Amino acid sequence: MNWINNIVRPKIRSFLNKKESPDNLWVKCPVSGEMVFYKDLEANQWVVPGSGHHMRIKARDRLNSFFDGGIYEELEVPETVQDPLKFRSAKRYSDQLRDDRNKTGLKDAILAAAGHVVGQKMVVCAHDFDFRGGSLGTAAGETIITSMAHAAKNRLPFIMFTTSGGARMQEGVLSLMQMPRTTIGVQMLNEAGLPYIVVLTNPTTGGVTASYAMLGDVHIAEPGAEIGFAGARVIEQTIREKLPEGFQRSEYLHEKGMIDLVVHRHNLRDTISSLVGILSKAPASKSSRAKMPAKPIEADDAGLMPMEPPPEAAHAE
Q1: Which of 22, 203, 231, 306 has its CA 20 to 30 A from that of 152?
Q2: Are 43 and 145 part of one and the same domain?
Q3: Residue 37, domain extent
Q4: Dist. CA 128–CA 109, nearest whole Å
Q5: Is the CA virtual torsion 39, 43, 46, 52 positive or negative?
C-alpha cells in the first residue's frame, strides 16, 4: 500500500478543495436590524422575511429561481478584447477581471440564458453586481446584443434584470459605445413585435439607466430599488436643494409615473408570465409553452409584425 498516494495526497486535495463557508452565517437586515440565517435567506430568494427588504441576488441565483425548475440553457456569446485600453490604477484591469471571474464564476457582468417561465419560453439577461458592480463594458454589451438577436431570430420574449453602477470606466469610450449598440438591439425587438420587459433592481444607475434599462415595453421594479442616472448626493450638490424623501426609489418613481409596476420578487414569475401572454396575445400556460409563430425571423426582416400597445390592465398595480 502506497500511503503517500492513497492517504496523504487525498487528504491534501480535500483540504485545498474544501468549499469555503460564508464569513458570517447570519446576515443583518439593513432596514430592521433583524439577523437572518443565510440559508433561510437564500431559500427565500434573498428577501428578508420580517422586513421584506430585497437584498442583492447573484445572477445565477436569479435565473435558478426565475426559470421553471431552475432549468435553462446559457447562451454562447462572442469573445471580446479583455483590456482594450491596458487600464491600470492601483491594480491592473486585467487582474481585476480575473479576480471577479474567480469570485463569481461568470465571464463578465451579465448572464444570458433561455428557458421556460410558467410554460412560456423566454430569453433572459441578468446583471451580477458582484462583477465590477454590474457595469456595462464591451463584453456585457456583446452579451446583450447577442441575446437580443437570438430572441429576435427565434421569436422569443426578452426579459432584462438590471443591477448596475453604469458604464465601466476602465474601458472608456468603448464602454459608452455600448449604450447606442444596446439601444439598436432593443429596436430590433420592437420591430420584430416581441415583448421586452425590464425588471429594475437595486441599484440601476448611470449609463445602463440612460440606455436599455428604460426602453422596455413594461418597466417593473423591485421594492426599495434605487433607480436613476446621477446619484442623489450629486444632484443635491448641483441644484443646491434637499431632495424629497424616497427620491429615486422604486415606490417614488412609480408614484410619479416613471415605472409601471413595483412587484415583490416572489411574484415576478407570475407577473412577467401574464404580461408576456398579454403582449404576445398568447395566454400563459402552466402545462405547455406559449404558441409562437413557427417561422423564425432574422434581424433584417424586423418590422413585419408591429406590436400593439398593451391594454391598460397591464399597467395597473
Answers
A1: 203
A2: no
A3: 23-54
A4: 5
A5: negative
